[in-house]
Amino acid sequence: MTSTAISSFDEMIDDQGNVRPAYAGYRQWYDAQDPKWMSRQGKEAESFFRRTGITFNVYGEAAGEERLIPFDMIPRIITADEWKKLSRGIEQRVRAINAFLHDLYHKREIIKAGKLPERVLAHNDAYLKQMVGFTPPGGVYTHIVGIDLVRTGADDFMVLEDNARTPSGVSYMLENRETMMAMFPELFTRVQVQPVSDYPRALARSLAACAPPAFAGDRPTVAVLTPGIYNSAYFEHAFLADQMGAQLVESGDLRVVDGRVCMRTTRGFKAIDVLYRRVDDDFLDPLTFNPDSMLGVAGIMDVYRSGGITIANAPGTGIADDKAIYSFMPEIVEFYTGEKPILKNVPTWRCAEADSLAYVLDNLADLVVKEVHGSGGYGMLIGPTSSKAEIAAFERKLRAKPDNYIAQPTLSLSTVPIFTKAGLAPRHVDLRPFVLVSPGGINITPGGLTRVALKKGSLVVNSSQGGGTKDSWVLAE
Amino acid sequence: MMLGRSAWGVFWMARYLERAENTARMLDAGFRMALTRGNTAASDEWRSVLITLGLDDAYAALGGDYTGPAVTNYILRGHNNLGSVLAMMEAARTNARMVRTALTREVWEATNESWMMIRDMLARPVRESDLGHVLDSIRRQASLVRGAMEGTMLRNDIFNFARIGTHLERADNTARILDVKYHVLLPSLAWVGSRLDNAQWEMVLRSVSGERAFRWLNAGALDPRGIAQFLILDGRFPRSLAYCYNKLASNVVALAREYGETTSACHLVGEAAEKLGRTTIAEIFDYGLHEFLTDSLNGNFRIADAIATDYRFTE
Fold first, then answer.
1. Cβ–Cβ < 8 Å for B24, B75
2. Structural domain range at position A201
3. What is the pLDDT of residues B254-276, one digit of tens each?
4. B38-96 confidence digits (pLDDT tens)
5. How far apart are CA A443 and CA A434, in angstroms?
6. Which residues on chain A are in Cβ contact (under 8 Å) with B154?
7. Partner residue opposite B312 with nearest CB, options A52, A246, A264
8. Which residues form the Circularly permuted ATP-grasp type domain (chain A) (predicted)?
9. Burial per residue of B250-267, b for 16 or more beta-carbon CB atoms within 10 angstroms, e otherwise
10. Domain count, chain A
């Protein structure tokens, strides 16, 4: 072997150069299409997204600057069997996360059992003392979860991150499918794909099933709380509210009246039963958390604790997707389900531990180092693609505050084809399936959001860093 | 039932769209007038367009000259001009984005596309040779949004708040055009037939797209009293004050019916519509056209204020 590049698992083509079964039907169709026509369709898709206003705002750019997340029109395809195994693993993990949260805020048995060191909770902003001893309506903490998965081999899916706060991206999953169906209707008659369009209804049902004790009536009033039109995910907030037939509210619309959180309507104040909030815990209640918050509702935590409203996801769920907790997830899953985890974790070194730190410092050039509280691909080091100077600069930060970092091996993320001028070309991807939790059970939409690093060889799939998205298919059985 | 903020957003979205469209009409009329007149008269004309739009002071402060290209570009896309067509389209679109869930997909897309198209069109200074095309496009885009509203929106409170915005803005616009022109027109009330005054009257009619309708109704005769009657009292003409108030009245009645409560705004609108219905053009001129129009503009302001309060647009 002379090549030093990491060899990756390609989801379409096997080692012998043959098309894998998942892509057989699609490739047959694709090979019969005129590349020029395909290219035109790609441009068509972009103007469709612009027209419908499917944009996201990038922080740091001029106010109101809206960008499109690039869309690649080659679907990412998963077989029904692969999906079955994945969804079992996801369900197991999400069950464990909810049990874990309940335990952390009540008896803390996992700590007593010695499976989780107490220090990870100490000085951790994601652990909210206001939630201690309180059980959210229906016992549900994470109504909506997005589990980030990466694939490294035929049977190797690993969890990269559990997004248990306010995962975003589901509107892209839905709009990508709509776009594909509008662009290539005949394709969907050739290849049978499991639908995703039930998601908004399932979300509405799932939220309504968690109505608080104060709810009285036929149908709980559900509202989506957005920070406003300049938020990067505003389009998604509006999209979900619209699809659910819920009100899209902002801080200025809300006020606590007679022990309920109410929205100001044209006919006066009306109580909200379930609030799907897309603002972070810290901004939720200026009386309880960040006093400067303009995005929340003063007094909502008191209403919440007295049973006047359901907040989805529950405040304090962030502790479950904290990167300091992540490395304990295999133990957590086993502790609460009594089963071996179906989905693997990525091996993780906790830089807070001296041995691990020493190893990480010796191997920086081969590792990915992440901030414990970071997100969006910011503040991380990807050793193999960084210069000596970048690594040295990062090393200084790491030595100064080792508690703040974890490290993982550079994974050879699987590749799937994207459409380029020169034809199909492999690019690295991840997958974020969306999971709904209600007292009635767990609902996983088949597929999810595939994010793709559009630059050749790149492993960064974040939309804020030049990544794109794809429609993700789970084939019908 | 809807959010007060959403009602506010829908109301202003409709107002801005209407205002952008009216501004395009006024520019069109001014442009045509300037083409057919000498330079001095043309700059007077541009000055009066600026006055009508309430932009005269801001423009004077910039020290711009009163030629067609300078004034039209300022009105269409002037830097820091919050009353430019570009700024209004952006404001309309921002409001639409804020109330996205109150709109149908068609209405949102029509508004978003209109904004994208006009933004691109106004990205660079508009040359005189392109002006006609640009103004046409602005009017056509406004029609598209209106058509999408008409064809796809439920006839509920959301729709009525939008229509209230449209009709109030339109009533304001017609009243302001008449008010700016009235002193030029006053002598002609006694002294009919001069070519200059005919041109001024035609300008007024053109700026509300009423020249054909008026000619059709009056067999081509341009009679100032008849024109004032047409623009103020003829309920058949969709930009007359009478039409706007009748529509406003039906919008607030529909709201009152849906909500099961009558508000102060309902009373104000009802009174205004009823009073206008009883008035004759002779009474208006006896009272004084300027005074009448000033009262009317103040009345619009009070109505807008009452609606914002009654329906809790803000805290």
1. no
2. 21-346+411-474
3. 999 999 999 999 999 999 999 99
4. 778 888 889 989 999 999 999 999 998 999 999 999 999 998 899 999 999 999 999 99
5. 9
6. none
7. A264
8. 75-453
9. ebbebbbeeeeeebebbe
10. 1
